[in-house]
Design goal:
It is a single chain. This protein is globular. The chain has helices at about 35-40, 40-60, 90-100, 105-110, 155-160, 185-190, 245-250, 285-300, and strands at about 1-5, 15-20, 25, 65, 80-85, 115, 130, 140, 140-150, 165-175, 195-200, 200-205, 210-215, 215, 220-225, 230-235, 260-265, 270-275, 275-280, 310-315, 330-335. It is built from eight helices and 21 strands. A hairpin with a 2-residue loop joins strand 18 and strand 19 (about 275-280). The strands form five sheets. Strands 5, 6, 8, 9, 10, 11 and 17 form a seven-stranded mixed β-sheet that branches. It starts with a strand and ends with a strand. By secondary structure, it is α+β, with helices and mostly antiparallel strands. The longest helix has 17 residues, at about 40-60. Helix content is about 20%, strand content about 30%. The protein has two domains: about 1-70, no CATH class; about 80-335, Fumarylacetoacetase-like, C-terminal domain (Fumarylacetoacetate hydrolase, domain 2, Alpha-Beta Complex). Helix 3 (about 90-100) crosses helix 8 (about 285-300).
């Protein structure tokens, strides 16, 4: 099934069920008001939500209304825990190569780095991207995320994978030029991860059909910047660590509660070197990757980070060409605009 959270003036919004083709919706208030309630009591509340979903798809829902992605908050507007991983080692390797790091080839052996993100204010798919200054170097990061149920401490990766309740698209935003605060070395590393936005709709893994395999989504992720295609990377091909492994790593020393968000990092595919020149035929899902490629090819980066008025579009379609999660469509704006 597909679930979303509509804006209603509150911090947690109103849970709605969305039809498979993303055209119709139905309030779920007779079952649960918020998505966190469903996650906390999944076995009891998900079956009646499934009934509403089936009725929507069959045209039998009595109080259905047209679905509007622009009215959506993040499916889970506030999360107890939000963590980003580096599941695509090609992303880390590309950035390290461009930086001239001797450890460029060791990204896989280093394991998927985990970074704790803010979970108290998660952005909706059409929310603007406020930034205090263009000089901070705002960068987008198009990827996938999962919402978990309860995960016991030190569970195996296959058991952790069974705890995936929902999947979403995400835009993991980073301020690439943020400097550490004086007297607080290293603080910029956390503060630079300024915000995270999510697709209008969260979907259960079964909605992906055969594309959900071994903890990976075997579909291309589309990313456009100012209307121009930047990336069409395969989300499954080069995902070195699947979602079960990421969740298990996070739960190695502590249990996870339902509603934990785990992001896999920007979807990335490995490049190809020919005659000393590097190319990435499937493109990029962040500006940092494009700049890194320019450094490898030309010795310096030519592409600037986002400017006010810039837009980013992130979407994933199934084999039939139908949007699965709806699109993330955001514009960078001045902080107090």
């Amino acid at each position: 099934m597909k679930l979303a959270t509509y804006k209603d003036g509150s911090r947690d919004g109103q849970l709605v069920v969305v039809s498979r083709d993303l055209t119709q919706a139905h309030y779920a208030s007779h079952i649960a008001n918020r998505l966190q309630q469903v996650l906390d009591d999944w076995n009891f509340l998900s079956p009646p939500l499934q009934d509403v979903f089936d009725a929507l798809n069959a045209g039998r829902a009595r109080h259905a209304f047209p679905f509007d992605p622009a009215q959506c908050m993040a499916p889970l507007p506030r999360a107890f825990q939000c963590v980003s991983a580096t599941a695509y080692t090609s992303h880390a390797e590309l950035l390290r190569k461009a930086a001239g790091s001797a450890e460029a080839e060791d990204a896989r052996s280093a394991g998927p780095a985990l970074v704790q993100l803010a979970g108290d204010t998660l952005l909706g798919a059409h929310d603007p991207l406020p930034c205090a200054a263009e000089a901070l170097g705002l960068d987008f990061g198009a990827g996938l995320a999962v919402v978990t149920g309860d995960i016991p401490q030190d569970c195996a990766a296959d058991r952790a994978l069974d705890g995936v309740r929902l999947l979403m698209l995400c835009n993991d935003l980073t301020l690439r030029h943020l400097q550490p605060a004086e007297g607080a070395p290293g603080s910029a590393g956390v503060q630079s991860r300024c915000a995270t936005a999510f697709s209008p709709v969260a979907i259960t893994p079964d909605e992906l059909g055969e594309a959900w395999a071994r903890g990976r989504v075997q579909l291309p992720l589309q990313c456009s910047w100012n209307g121009r295609k930047l990336g069409l990377c395969d989300a499954g091909a080069d995902m070195a660590y699947h979602f079960g492994q990421l969740i298990a790593l996070l739960a190695k020393t502590r249990p996870l509660r339902s509603g934990s968000l785990v992001l896999a990092g920007p979807v990335s595919n490995a490049g190809v070197e020919k005659r000393g020149l590097w190319s990435w035929p499937k493109g990029f899902n962040s500006i940092a990757e494009k700049r890194a490629m320019e450094v490898l090819q030309d010795g310096q980066a030519a592409t600037e980070f986002m400017r006010y008025g810039d837009t980013v579009h992130i979407e994933m379609k199934n084999a039939a060409g139908h949007s699965l999660f709806g699109a993330i469509e955001q514009e960078m704006v001045p902080l107090n605009a």
